[in-house]
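Per reviewer request, we include the raw input and output of the structure prediction for the construct analysed in the revised manuscript.
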Amino acid sequence: METGAKGSLAGRWGRADDGGRRRERFGGKFTANFTSEFAAKDSADLQESEPAVKWKLSTSALLASLAGTRVLTPLRAAAQQPPAPGAVSAPQDSGNAAGQPVAYDAVAILNGSGPQAQRDEAAQRLLSRHTAEARKSLHDALVGSDQGAQLAVARALSQDPDPDASFVVPLFPLLLENQDLAAAAGRALAGYKADQEVLTRLIEYATARHNVLDFTRLAAINAIGTIPEKRAAEALWDLLNSPDMSSSIHKAAAAALTNLTGLEENGEDPARWGKWWASVRNTPDAQFRTDIEALQSARLDRLDARYGGLVGAAHDLLADAYNRTNSQAEREEMMLKFLGSPAPEIRKMGAGLLSADVLHGNPVSAAEQQRLRYMIADSDPGVRREVAQAIGNINDPDALDELLAQLKVEPDPTVRAAIAKALGPIQNLRAVPTLINLLSDESLPTAEAAANALGNLASPGPLPTDPKLARKTALALRDTILSKSETQGTGDLRAACIEALAPLAQPDIVQDLLNHKLMDPGKEIPLLLLMPRKSVGYCNRIRRAMTRCAKRHGNSFRVCFQGSTSRSWRPGKTGSRIVPSANCLRWKPWRTSNRMRSNWRIWQ
């Protein structure tokens, strides 16, 4: 019977082939942010009813199990349990004979014979790259004969909000293979809601009278129940009302109609669904689609609010249990379970807790650092972003290769910014070319993060010791400043570029910027770029320039000094003066105190 199903429908649709700012001192550069802004956060106690608390405890216990724990209380004891079967652990062959780390090969893992959870993660990582090479690897796996790889790709596609149309043809034959493949393929095909041909094929699989097994029909029905089209509702009603279909098909059709419309009160009652269908069958298709989408949107809003509460409750409970654990060995074991959870929310929480550990001075084990390196290419962008931030806080030089490799394929601008920020403290000149390229990133926060990282590499980093690379960097920074000089909203980017340029000792480039009148580029970016001399007269020029800037911009402007400066400046002019101290220079206003309400600090 199963063979016949493949022969009829698979033969008809065919199987696709292989074609388818820190404290700092450097050579003459000082930076200051002349501000008096403070941020405050209000806190409020969360009042909850007993039922809500019970609900959060129960749902958090569910997420705790996803993190690899057997029970929520006591969680310390649970941390000693072995990982859950679905936990995504790092591949065991994480080094070679020389003890060097081996790059994560998603294609090899996808097509290998490892645990299904690892193959699923490999497929999701490939899909998250959004490159032609990655799509080809996924397509080849779909049309191959390895059902484990097919299952991993189908599961990954089911989570893609905008799946590529090239996967449609090889997905349909999977509906005929087995129950797991059919369910995964059905969920993946449900993502093609705008493709009317996909809906037509799904309806045919669901309503075929012969040569279709129930698991194929059920997978098609579940997919149809996600598509807000009048044809989909009609097909589901016909299945529910058909005397030729089994009770399992009737139940699936009723569940799909409930999922489509959100009318949970109708349950599996054909009479209720018949009355509903009679009231909407003459509605124009476009209006039907609009009405269904509005119902689905409202339902998703409710589910999203509940999901947010679930994740928040789980985070609080698991973080509290982790922080109460005193044994370092138990904390490490618990953390590795968090980082290896199949749920991205738990992995993200684990990376955040590890980052907090670093900020609080707690040690991070070698195993935890290795796990973070493995997670730089995680399939979830939120996890990748949190991991990059954790690595930046740890300052792990061994993560350089993984960070640079991920930047080449990273589609999320917030993750690119986090990785660029993490590259600065590592102080390795191999990151400079990549950071220079990021200066032209379409995302301004990413470009700004790259400029800040280059500033970190320039001071107190090693960049000035390589004249050729320093020159190349200075030219790129200049070009970025000039190209963005007329663009609104780029003030912070240009400021970061000027501050990164200052310690590179490139007077001709600085003079070029001065010739373009970018010494003080306007209110959007009040910034002075000065080339000081060891003379009192020049100090008076600095004082006058700063006074003008303060009058124009109040107490918010930046100052960059380039070249060699003397820490013993003490201009004899009255009115205002620059006074050096052990850790800072303070701008002391004597006549303009109403304008400048606070001191500005220049870190050394």
